[in-house]
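User: Predict the complex.
Assistant: Input components as received:
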Amino acid sequence: MILSLNWLKDFVDVTDVDVKKFCDDMTHTGSKVEQFELLGEEIQNVKVGLIEKIEQHPDAERLVICQVNAGEKTIQIVTAAKNVFEGALVPVCYCPDGEKRVAKLAGGMEIKTGKLRGVLSEGMFCSIAELGLDLHDMPGAPTDGILILNDIVECKPGDDICDVLKMRDTAVEFEITPNRPDCLSVIGLAREAAVTFDRNLTIPAPVIKGAGGDLRDYVSVSIESDKCSRYCAKVVKNVKIAPSPLWMRMRLRAAGVRPINNIVDITNYVMIEYGQPMHAFDYACLDGSHITVRTAEDGEIFKTLDNTDRTLSSDMLVIADSKKPVGIAGVMGGANSEIKDDTATVVFESACFDGASVRITAKKLGMRTESSSRFEKGLDCENCMGAVERACQLVELLGAGEVVGGTIDVYPVKKPLATVAFEPEKINRFLGIFLSPDEMKKTLEKLEFKVEGSVITVPSFRDDVRCMNDVAEEVVRIYGYNNIASSSIVASMTQGGMSDSRVFREEMSDLLCGLGLNEIYSFSFIPARLYTKCGMAEDDVRRKSVEIANPFGEDTKTMRTTSIPSMLEVLDLNSSRNAKSASLYEMAKVFIPRENVVTNIHGLEGTLPDERIKISIGFYGAGDFFRMKGICEEILKKAGIKTAKYVANQSDPTFHPGRCADIVLGDTVLGTFGELHPVVAENYTFSCPVYVAELDLALIFENSSLEKEYTPLPKFPAVTRDFSLVCDEETEVGTLEETMRMGGVKILENITLFDVYRGSQLPTGKKSVSFSVTLRSPDHTLTVEEADKATKKILGALEHNLGVTIRS
Amino acid sequence: MKELLEKIWQSALAAIESGNDAESLRIRFLGKKGELTAVLRGMGALSPEERPKMGQLVNEMREKIENAIAEKAAKEKEEALKNKLLSEKIDVTLPGNDLSVGHRHPIAETEKMMRDIFIGMGFSVVEGPEVEYDYYNFEALNLPKNHPARDTQDTFYITDNILLRSQTSPVQVRAMENSKPPIRIISPGRVYRADPADATHSPIFHQCEGLVVDKGITMGDLKGVLELFAKKMFGEDTRIRFRPHHFPFTEPSAEVDVSCWECGGKGCRLCKGEGWIEILGAGMVHPFVLSNCGIDPNVYSGFAFGMGIERVALCRFGIDDLRLLYENDVRFLEQF
């Protein structure tokens, strides 16, 4: 909402308040000012000049030399303009004292004294564009010539052009919150200003002389829907369509509205002044004399004022004559009844439509208008009549037509005024302030609430006030939010903190940082093509994703089911920017669609997806498969998971089939990691192998054992035995270790791999694997015999189960 | 005899002087076959009266030589140590080993700072789903379908009644449904709005909202908590300012500015000359919201507040483009 301060002065006098203070104080009482603009400020030293004499330029056929009376002195201007004549009053831009002061035009252009073809020219005549105006602001003005003022305004040489054209104003832009549609009007803001600056508010009631007659001879109205709570109308005859006067055009311009013609301008003027959208339509276009407010028919086609065909549906409200709609209620009028230059009789409509209905209609038709955006917030029925009367008053003021006697006011159910309990003590306690009931009462009454005893009657334009909290806000915004003293909560003690799972997540993050990984944050939605890019097959179950119904483009459409595509994109970005290495992790949420199984307490339809946090890890140029495995091992160690196994995964299409492992605990796969499949890697810019991992945080947490218990330090020495085994290339080291443990040797403390050898000394297809085995008893020093016996048992298990023997 | 001792002493001194090592000196002069031992052996030829005297002299000399040799040995050791240390000298300006500790993301850093402050004030951290029912994101928060205030948040929808949460407030609704007052929670988390990404907007960002519900909670308490938070977060001299505003789920509602930590409120580039930076939205929980969640507004009152984590992160770290946070260039990440 842009407010013209000139306009505001019609209702409240704040002329002595500095603009900055006006804006600050209004903001602090609840009408937030976004910015203000001093209109006419950028135009400097443009005066009215009277052209007294015109001579031909001696050296230029197209130029003339004008002697111009500019008030304080006569100056000489050389111009190429063709529409100047002796006796013309024109805007002239010049520096009154030569070079000292600068003359400026709209857009910041500066004008100085100069010579044109050898002849002194002390300034420049202005066209409307140079004053920042267009044909809507100055109808009939020449666009390719100088603005001639003689027939437009009364003025004399030396007058300031901004004053003459009423361009000087201050436009203050407010951010009005949706609960205060009453403030989308000059009167509403005047009311706020009057309270803020403790001034008197004067809202004169419109006075109409009237031209007699009875508008019932012209039109009648009936409402056939409960979505229209009131419909007021007046008829104006003998209309003369013309531009509206300069003052009205300039006020509309300051408010950001483009002037059209007197009737249309009046509807806009009233909308801005009263906050009540108005509609004017040409009486001649009505079929019959009866107007009905009814719901549209499904599929009904209707051409709106903007010349677009709209397909209506039965949940939309239209204003119709006996045969056709003439307007979509609260949204836009129809092309069929538009005010034209030859319109002779006008019907003014000032009605109140249901907010939600207007909102749905406007949204469905994709046409949010100034009118609909006001109606959807819920307007005051009581405002309709004043607005239409104001429009008629303006018609008479402008001489735009004759107002037919009588009024149409269809108002089926007058809405009673709401009441709220007046509870000053409760308000004080709630806000933590100490205001007397009288002070509160005074504030509320200035805001036009009626306070009688313990009952507050809410004015009709304040539908937003419904309970104690609302009243408290009214009181405190005028008292000053910043006058509330800060206090400490006096209440029950609470123990702050995080859930165990959240603490675990933070600890995991710290661990991963400690292992040299940088944390990333990536978007939770991805373009579906990234599934293909990371190698997923067309029928991969992970492609079944939660999809956004109203995305803007593919990139924000698919909620990811895996964190790997995001990680690869980030690694790729760094690689493409020539980072030699990158080591990254993310606590990445993924969204797995769920069947309709979960019930909720409100019986809400639909099932929310399973949201899981994945530990996503990726790196390149900084280690190999075993760095990744080391990281995974540290994660499990941190979680106290001791029995997980690493099982080769040869089927995940994202990974190298020979360099990928699942982390398996019992029947549960905790995660997968490995080297990116070389074919997949070709989809990116990588120049070295890339390793990625995805582990399920919740599964790890569920299986974690975080309790720590002290194991006494060993009191007796250990015995170590080293041996090398020869086995088939396919035999995994993990299997060998597992088999050794199967030997049932209680004193087996630890098995450490220290070498894997392949070479000419061995038969083809065989490898040698060397282990160091630590044996220890908790209660005595082992004898050589005991150690030998244990070793034999271990080797026996290997031979018996795998046929693996010691290397000779 | 005396002369002989004197001669030995002199030759010992000369030997020490000439740089023989301590051990060989000890052997030569004090050892079993050493020169002094030889003197002692020759004492048999002396008279019984002279013997003790001479013995004493020899012992004195032994001590003298021993001391001299020990002194020599100490010097040698010192010298050796000095040489060793000298040879072990390193160029301390050489770079340290690259241990490559990773960095938390600036959003995580900022969230942690906020979390720690509120945990210190007795707040619990709660989380909730990001794909959420319309009911929790809007309806329970006094924003029925077709409420015009829904337009202020462009929302991504999955179905008609499931959406990507546009605020973390649904977590508060769930918390109020699931627990009885006293409630003192914050709900940091990820939210979604259909805003295309630019330097100051992102379709995904993070909020940290807070909620307190108990008997006798006042708007003064809200100011108290936020003032304390602002001082801890932005520095002890920070002041806060409330401006009336409207949120459907709080009444009264306020936008909260903190005094600019860069200029202290005088006005600078960071605060665009205002002296204040808008950080928070806050207000007293709307009684309709309390009753929607099964809490009697006649018995309990409460306040809620919320802020954008990215906004605070950008201001605090002087980052001029929000998109950098989601781009994850390692040169960016390693600065935090």
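Chain A has 20 helices and 41 strands.
Let me know if you want any component modeled separately.
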